[in-house]
Sequence to fold (97 residues):
Amino acid sequence: MEKIIHDEKNGLDYKLVGNYYYPCLKAPESPKVGRFGMIYREYLRNHHRVTYSGLMLSGKLKEHIEDVDGQTEDMFSQLMDLMKQTEGVTEQLESTD
Fold:
C-alpha cells in the first residue's frame, strides 16, 4: 500500500496511518493581530456567528480581522495624540512625571 495518495476529485493528499488513509490537512494560519483584533474576533465569534462562520468558510476571516485591527490601531493612536494635545502632555512632562 502506498504511504501517500492523491485524490484528483477533491485535490487532497491522503497519508496512510495504520490501515487507514487520513487527509493531509493544514489548519488556517491565525491572524497576526493586536488586542483590538483579538477582541473583535471574539465579538464576532460570540455575537455574530453567521458572519464569523461565513468569513471563516470563505477564507477571508484572517484578512478581515487584520484589516479591522489595523484601522482600530490607527484610530487609537490618533485619539491618544489628540488627548495629549488637549491635556497639554509634553515629552518633558512624560519624562519627569
